[in-house]
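Much of what follows relies on a compact textual record of a protein's fold. With that in mind, consider the following protein and its fold in token form.
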Amino acid sequence: MSHQIIREHDIDGKLVAAGYEWGEHNDLITHLSAGFILVAVGIATISFHVMKTHVLGGLLLLSGSALLGYAGYKLSKVVFRPRSFIFDLDGAMRMPHGVPEFWRLRAIDGHHVKIGTIEKIRDEGPHGGPRVVHRVAMFSKEGRIVRISKALHPDDAHLVSVQLTAALQEIRDEIAWRARARGAR
């Protein structure tokens, strides 16, 4: 899984945005790859029996093996989907890779001054299943909860929450520093 600290600066070198990027397990690609592997194994099994009497079995074996190789490649390379969260100096909160469960949304409404804490939480699995998952959630000062990640390993969820808390603190410090600098003039 990839992790990347995000800091954006203006041309004067002053901080204008801070955030963090991480990878989340991509269930769709995993299920598609598992389906490809299942089909490839089925084709390879059938082709072993067909090869005893026909050359066509060799072609089936070749196509099954190619499909199996492709599925394995996809599974190893695209298993994680990027997810990021960025706090802007103007108070905006962006998620360039989409908000979990609402992938078309690219931002969270409100100002980041309303955020109380960012924490790792334990949650029910998908569709209320028995599997417990760990997520990262923002708790607003009004009591609202916004889940900003999907299923993560507990250590990764902790890392993301710590990094996002640090990014939020950095952007708040920058806002306070700029306000003091304006007041000193």
Summary: The helical segments are 27-51, 56-77, 154-184.
